[in-house]
Amino acid sequence: MANAPMDDDAFDRSEYFKADRQFRLVEQELPQEAVSALAREVVRRLAFKMPRAVKKEDLPTASDIDLLCAALLSKKEDAADAFILAARRDGVQTDVIYLGYVAGAARRLGEMWDKDEISFIDVTLACGKLYRIIRGLRHVIAPGIVAERDDWPAMFALVPGETHTLGIEIATDIFRREGWDVDMMVGLDHDTLVEQSDSRNYRAVVLVANSDVMLEPLTRLALAIRISHPLAHLVVAGNILDHHPNILELVGADAMIKDIKTAVKTLRDVINEPET
């Protein structure tokens, strides 16, 4: 990746603010246990992003990570943003930002949380800040994440725990009849689904849920997919749309598929796929 400083224009402020709104809404509408699970998801997904090709001497020191964590835990809302953007302007490589600073801070926050050195509220706020930062940097960090993955139009995934499979099976069949080469993932647990999805670079990921109790698993899966597929269009489908009018903001999705009849057109519009 380029080692040149990043201009502020490279920061996706639309996605940054979208991620910020999502976390604020999640804290308002979901129970504390669900919010805790979502914060854990962010920490876990980012913490396991380990350096590979990055030179050891380029990685941040323990003091650097402490400074970033202090910024994340600071009451000053944009302290962590300023820290990361300053590092980029100083020419710190993108791989080092993502695999060194962000992943290192996630690991440190997780350790502090496990040792009860920080409160639930503190870590939730810090995780929200980390998540919005990586969403803001999505165009910059994406090449390193999706490198060597096959490009693929779409993945349809049934949210783990959901038992109604008929809708997603019908939708997948319709899309395939229309000439779409799509993957369908049904009956997988959360970690297996995310792991399986990482083998390809999807232009769109459609998450299907029907019952109201699937809101927390859906949101958790959406966060994980956002981290592993930073540029994919995230789409929500299923009867859960009837229960939550603000589902797009709550899940952080880009679009919804409301019914089978308009499904192909909706997804085609989302990814700008021309009609055949």
Helix and strand topology:
Blueprint: H1 13-29, H2 32-47, H3 62-73, H4 79-89, H5 94-114, H6 120-136, H7 138-146, E1 150-158, H8 166-177, E2 182-185, H9 190-197, E3 200-208, H10 215-228, E4 233-237, H11 247-251, E5 255-257, H12 263-271
Parallel strand pairs: 1-2, 1-3, 3-4, 4-5
Helix pairs in contact: 1-6, 2-5, 2-6, 2-10, 3-4, 3-5, 5-6
Quaternary structure classification: single chain
How many individual β-strands?
A: 5
**What is the helix/strand order?**
HHHHHHHEHEHEHEHEH
Radius of gyration: 19 Å
The main sheet orders its strands as: 2-1-3-4-5
> CA-to-CA gap between the ends?
36 Å
Low-confidence stretches: 1-6
Q: Tell me the structural class.
A: alpha/beta
Largest sheet: 5 strands, parallel
Total helical segments? 12
Mean pLDDT, all residues: 91
Tell me what portion of residues adopts beta-strand conformation. Answer: 5-15%
The best one-word shape is globular
Helix content: 40-55%
Structure in a nutshell:
With 276 residues, the protein is of the alpha/beta class. It is built from twelve helices and five strands.
